[in-house]
């Protein structure tokens, strides 16, 4: 209750859900960046519930120089405090998204390079499992980037919201006079938001390109597997034809193998004659079947269209 009274806020204003938004309320900026929750006042930055989020390094080593205006996307050292605080939050969010992208990007490229191999007879299931997990992480990252972009775009589309984010302009008369003399804080705020919107747009483009590369690689993998599968099916069909041809002329051996007396078994040359005829006939039938198979399995040549000038 003391915090609500100090910030002139209601309890519902600090009811943080896990979504991304930037709103202005009673000359305060309420920031929700997923798990990062903060309130920016004209002269302070309150980061709430930071324990367990891995923000200690950022709070201790990076945040102070950013609030002092030592570095940043814009020259915010000459602008009020809320510009530097908001830029620090946005920069941290972009860095977090960039780190997540850098984590999955090389892993996905290595897996795709190993899977897209023309000599590959079967896909490694362990690599496919890793690719599936990283694609899921990539989809979640793409969603987070889109939510971050939409939160910034929502502000950029409303001039009144941009004006409300310039809280010092309305609380300090001196700053308001400087703004009216030539320093347009609304334009500076718009440039600040547009800068990080463009960075998020670049991250989104990289994410979409990586997902497109995964889809293209999946198509190549399926084509390679289908090609090898067709080769195996063709070989199986050829062996089946050979077995059929040999079995067809093998009926002659079955007939002579019956315990029936004839004049042929008395001649020793008949055995070699019948055996040779069997193999020769089987070979001719197999060759004929292979020729038939080759004619019907060759790719169809598309018709050639000839254009003539009339």
UniProtKB/TrEMBL annotation:
GO terms for cellular component: mitochondrial inner membrane. GO terms for biological process: mitochondrial magnesium ion transmembrane transport. Its main location: membrane. The chain crosses the membrane at residues 239-258, 270-286. CDD domains: Mrs2_Mfm1p-like (cd12823). Gene3D superfamilies: 2.40.128.330, Magnesium transport protein CorA, transmembrane region (1.20.58.340). InterPro entries: MRS2-like. Keywords: Ion transport, Magnesium, Membrane, Mitochondrion, Mitochondrion inner membrane, Transit peptide, Transmembrane, Transmembrane helix, Transport. It comes from the Eukaryota. It is found in: Membrane; Mitochondrion inner membrane. Homopentamer. Belongs to the CorA metal ion transporter (MIT) (TC 1.A.35) family. Magnesium transporter that mediates the influx of magnesium into the mitochondrial matrix and regulates magnesium metabolism. Also permeable to calcium, sodium and potassium ions. Required for normal expression of the mitochondrial respiratory complex I subunits. May play a role in maintaining the inner mitochondrial membrane potential. This is Magnesium transporter. It comes from Salmo trutta (Brown trout). The gene is MRS2.
């Amino acid at each position: 209750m003391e915090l609500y009274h100090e910030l002139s806020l209601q309890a519902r204003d600090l009811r943080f859900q896990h979504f991304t938004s930037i709103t202005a309320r009673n000359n305060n900026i309420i920031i929700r960046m997923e798990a990062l929750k903060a309130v920016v006042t004209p002269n302070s930055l309150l980061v709430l519930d930071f324990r367990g989020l891995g923000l200690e390094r950022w709070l201790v080593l990076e945040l102070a120089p950013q609030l002092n205006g030592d570095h940043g996307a814009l020259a915010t050292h000459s602008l009020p405090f809320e510009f530097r605080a908001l830029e620090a939050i946005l920069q941290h969010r972009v860095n977090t998204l960039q780190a997540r992208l850098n984590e999955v990007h090389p892993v996905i490229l290595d897996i795709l390079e190993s899977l897209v191999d023309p000599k590959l007879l079967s896909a490694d299931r362990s690599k496919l499992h890793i690719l599936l997990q990283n694609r899921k992480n990539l989809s979640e990252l793409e969603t987070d980037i889109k939510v971050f972009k939409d939160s910034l775009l929502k502000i950029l589309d409303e001039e009144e919201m941009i004006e409300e984010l310039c809280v010092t302009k309305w609380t300090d008369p001196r700053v308001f006079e400087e703004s009216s003399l030539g320093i347009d804080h609304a334009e500076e705020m718009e440039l600040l938001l547009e800068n990080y919107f463009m960075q998020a747009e670049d991250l989104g483009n990289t994410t979409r390109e990586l997902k497109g590369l995964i889809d293209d690689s999946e198509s190549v993998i399926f084509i390679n597997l289908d090609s090898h599968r067709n080769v195996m099916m063709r070989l199986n069909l050829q062996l089946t034809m050979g077995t059929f041809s040999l079995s067809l002329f093998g009926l002659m051996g079955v007939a002579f193998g019956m315990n029936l007396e004839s004049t042929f078994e008395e001649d020793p040359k008949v055995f070699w004659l019948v055996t040779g005829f069997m193999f020769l006939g089987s070979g001719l039938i197999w060759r004929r079947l292979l020729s038939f198979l080759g004619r019907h399995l060759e790719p169809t040549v598309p018709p050639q269209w000839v254009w003539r000038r009339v």
